[in-house]
Write a structure and sequence with these properties.
With about 450 residues, this protein is an alpha/beta fold. The protein has one domain: TIM Barrel (Alpha-Beta Barrel). It is built from 13 helices and 14 strands. The strands form four sheets. Strands 1-2-5-8-9-10-11-14 form an eight-stranded parallel β-barrel. The protein has a two-stranded antiparallel sheet with strand order 3-4. Strands 6-7 form a two-stranded antiparallel ribbon. A hairpin with a 5-residue loop joins strand 12 and strand 13. The longest helix is centred in the middle third of the chain and has 24 residues. The chain starts with about 25 loop residues before the first helix and ends with a helix. About 45% of the residues are buried. Bound molecules: phosphoenolpyruvate (PEP) and cobalt (II) ion (CO). The site of cobalt (II) ion (CO) has 5 residues, from loops.
Length: about 450
Amino acid sequence: MTTSESWSPFSWKDRPNAQAVRYEDPAAVDAAVERLMSFPPLVTSWEIERLKAQLAEAQQGKRFLLQGGDCAETLADCTPSVITNKLKILLQMSLVLVHGGHKPVIRVGRFAGQYAKPRSKPTESRDGVELPSYYGDLVNRPDFDADARRTNPRLLIDAYEHAAMTLNFIRSLSDGGFADLHHPEYWDLSFVRHAAMPPALRELYEKSSRQLSEALHFMEALGETTIDELTRVDFFTSHEGLNLHYESAQTRRVPRRPGFYDLTTHLPWIGDRTRALDGAHVEFFRGIANPVGVKLGPKVAPDELLRLIDALNPTDEPGKLALIARMGASRVAEALPPLLEAVKRAERRVLWVCDPMHGNIQVTSTGVKTRDFDDILREIEGNFDAHASVGTHLGGVHFELTGDDVTECIGGGAGITEADLDKNYLTLCDPRLNYRQALEMGFRIAQRLSAGRA
Ligand code: PEP
Ligand code: CO
């Protein structure tokens, strides 16, 4: 790959794409792209630059990143309650983390565009019937019938519209609609009282939530402005920049700023399956001014990582690059330190983020995809330990979670078991932490952040 070669929003088209979507009618794709090019942007360059500045501070250890949301966001879930619940859990987790880490938390949702999924197999078989896999609502539909699974460029437009509706509601809520969300009584801490909860943890959670609630009351007593400051919250958006038709159609120059911005989202990321150095995604991402994330699985080699950093951030721009490690609980101790060492030795500026979800998928004996709360926690602990041993710091966490009461991941204090999984298993892709599991995870990370301050 030669980064000096000329770049355009569409120069990725000449590069190999490990997850290229096969559309039957290229003219219909071109027509959809043209419409997307004519639509207003979903986000603005100044919001993107604000996020980049905050990420730069996180790289210096002055902020912490919390990124989370669905594995596969769906058009059907574009409803007020689903969106509100997602914001609620992200906000509450972030307050718990602020409390533990004593530093501001950058909230980034996997929402308003997380509609495209990479798949390991191009087809799915059920009862002897084989159909194309579901690639996310940006590409085809989840129902298991031939018509739904056909790729459909019209969905590029539908997804844009749903992203716009989602963002519109998020922006309204951020501007003051959170009046009740920060109230302690709005927090569902019932998991703390669950019989299976070990007493030491119960005590820890109760103490933290009591302190947090006192702090919130105190803030409130200081007057509306202050609590408004706290709760008129910034939420940034992110999604995997997988479908490059969608991304490039919204990538443009803006007045009075150099460069091209991908205006579908603030923080697009490259998935672990599409980070090939000579591939379409690295080609596209190297030309945009947004901060970008890159997922790193256990197979990435230190020198490959350094070449990726060179390609994506040749000038070592602050706040530009977030490296999202997703090694798996059992591999993190061996796989992560060599990468941390290499980046440290090369003196490159990155934000190290832990995705404790994607290396910890397991399939139950009845064929249900799940994740164990304890594995997720172990991977986070493994990240803190690896950073402590190398002398670098963990700057953020990346979760698949939902604000709703689903039963997709096992474990956690409220004790979801394999037998519970079919009670409310809704995800169309990977299993998510539910509200209580996510909040509990927040408390556990906060505990570690607060120990790091001591
Ligand atoms: C994801 O974040 O949903 C995903 C597919 O992750 P990864 O690229 O790390 O496998
Ligand atoms: Co996922």
